[in-house]
Amino acid sequence: MKDTLSKIRETAIASCAAAKTVDEVENLRVQVLGRKGELTQILRTLGTMTPEERSEVGKLSNEIKTELEAALDARKADLEREVIGKKLSAEWIDVTLSGAQTTEPFERGHLHPISQFQYEIEDIFTSMGFDVLDGPEAETEHYNFEVLNIPKHHPARDMQDTFWTEDGNLLRTHTSAIQVRGMEKIKPPFRVIGPGRVFRYEATDASHENTFYQVEGMMVDKNISVANLIYFMKTLLREIFKREVKIRLRPGFFPFVEPGFELDINCLICGGEGCPVCKQSGWVELLPCGLVHPNVLRSGGINPDEYSGFAFGLGLNRLVMMRYGITDIRHFLSGDIRFLKQF
Ligand code: PHE
Questions:
Q1: What was the pLDDT predicted at 115?
Q2: Whose CA is nearest to atom 4 of ligand 1?
Q3: 138, 144 in Cβ contact below 8 A?
Q4: What would the mean pLDDT of 124-146 be, rounded to a whole number?
Q5: 3-state secondary structure of 168
Q6: How many Å is the Cα radius of gyration of the chain?
Q7: pTM of the shown model
Q8: Atom of ligand 1 nearest to the CA of 198
Q9: Residue 340: pLDDT over 90
Q10: What is the dihedral of CA 173, 150, 225, 250, to 10 degrees?
Q11: Residue 228 in contact with residue 210, Cβ under 8 Å?
Q12: Nearest CA to ligand 1 atom 9
């Protein structure tokens, strides 16, 4: 009897170790320990044995039963863990991977060159005590034109045709729309810039786009003159181009400044000798500017007898083009990845 028992034990332990699925383990449990199981059968015959035999076989059977149950439970747990592990590694997702993987190696994106430049300019101006303002891209006629001294039938509106909404609003043609919005919120003295996207209804070519970027600037204080304007513009250009840049002012007309100027810089491509970029003149038109018109100050609730200010409108696209020698403005919004990757 003892031999039979140890045979049962041996085969059961071996089959348990060899079981490949949870089902196999459970079948084995039934086969040995179940109601009609091998070990159970033997325990049923205990009654026919002598007392010594009975206690010996009983003891041994119980030991085997305990040992086998432990082995079966352990094997079952192992197999269950294996199943979960397999499932986990098959269904595991690395959420840090980029989207659709292409055949190209994984590359991190970066800011658009216009944004990079915008942030750079914001840094330069904030270091000079300017605040950064924001304004809506969809504007009212009021802020885009009227308060800037451009009434309805003023010919200056022709220069800045834009996209109109059916209810009479428009996509702002310039960041100057931020000027009066700003003055309504903050009291002088102040220094602000307002970067942003602007729109024009424009036939596009290498130097014209219907969507581009400007940085508006405005400083209002007591006794602000053209000298202050020149100082800040020269400082800005020195910071941007990392060298001393020669400038000149020509008269320019914008209804919201008086006097108004076009600020030119010495051509950085040819150094002033004359080249196709500066059209052989040695100068490149860079930014319009001037002293804020008294009417505009009044629209912003500021007394022009007490305060004066300067304003300028920096074309971001133009500057980025100058810095990198980009010859077509349409690259910026083309979405061409080969263009963008260069920055
Ligand atoms: N807003 C003008 C434009 O877009 C530029 C400008 C700004 C001129 C500020 C003078 C002062 O053409």
A1: 97
A2: 174
A3: no
A4: 97
A5: coil
A6: 41
A7: 0.69
A8: 4
A9: yes
A10: 70
A11: no
A12: 312
